[in-house]
Amino acid sequence: MGSNRWYDALLVVSFGGPEKPEDVMPFLENVARGRNIPRERLLEVEAHYQRFGGRSPINQQCRDLIAALDVDVPVYWGNRNWHPFLTDTVRRMKEDGVRKAAAFVTSAYGSYSSCRQYLDDIARARAAVPGAPEIVKLPHYHDHPGFIAAMVDNTRKAIARLPESERESARLVFTAHSIPISMARSSGPSGGLYERQHQRTASLVAEALGGAREWDLVWQSRSGPPHIPWLEPDVCDHLEALHAKGVRAVVVVPIGFVSDHMEVIYDLDVEAKDTAERLGMAFARAATPGTHPRFVAMVKELLAEPEPAPCPATCCPAPRRG
Ligand SMILES: CC1=C(CCC(=O)O)c2cc3nc(cc4[nH]c(cc5[nH]c(cc1n2)c(C)c5CCC(=O)O)c(CCC(=O)O)c4C)C(CCC(=O)O)=C3C
Ligand SMILES: [Fe+2]
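A: This is the predicted complex of the input protein with coproporphyrin III.
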């Protein structure tokens, strides 16, 4: 394998997050630039970060993943919204003589926010660095056996944390980041890809667990102005609906996230957990893939594949501003 590699470096591309209180607002300003996010929503999200000492788990998760990777080329790391910024990383890659890098993005799915925006980030960083290396994004891995196996294992462990009497009947609640419905409709080469990929991931995990359990796919972490429709139901509303139907225990499985993010440790471990507690439902949250050995091995398996073809230039277009 080694001699006919199509890449000479691996670039991990992520969202980025603040790691101290004074970084939170500048980080949020980067995220919100050119986007339509109400001020009140940003202040609310700021409070989520400050509740955790101004520190998102995402950067350390990236460092841990990189430390766990077993690949035979140099590994670089660059973010969209916080240090280390992608442009600085691409400059360093160029200085180190990298010619062509494979990009592993910490998002498994297609859509503007989860795929195209990262491609745009890479293109912008390369445009800012004369002589920048070529950078080829690895394909979506939402249904890769390594990604699925990590989530299946983590879901089994979460079920085992429930009170014994609730384990057999516990319902699986798969959750992912909500996006505007218009963005969901325009995702992928023929539309609807974001929801379709999540449906497939959820069904693969549910099947691997024996297929006997009822499951749902719901959404979380809605942003944007209230009059713009986003994917629903929201995970907390859904817990209320399940409770009304007599469900007594849930296992929330964050299939939309490859590692712990603020959306996982706040929106699920605080908000969804509080909702379940208030309703008297037993609640367990499955761990994210993080540095699960099967997930880490998946990165190496993706690199062993032939060079992937790029996404069609027309899929997952940027949303219209408004
Ligand atoms: C699909 C998707 C993913 C999954 C794919 C991927 O992983 O990339 C994702 C990941 C993430 N989103 C993150 C943080 C934020 N997202 C925001 C806002 C938004 N997200 C959106 C979508 C997504 N986001 C959208 C359509 C918006 C509206 C504004 C816009 O059109 O861009 C805002 C603004 C405040 C608010 O929430 O309103 C913040 C702070 C973090 C870092 C968390 C941490 O620090 O641990 C991560 C990994
Ligand atoms: Fe987001």
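The mean pLDDT is 96. The longest strand covers residues 171-177.
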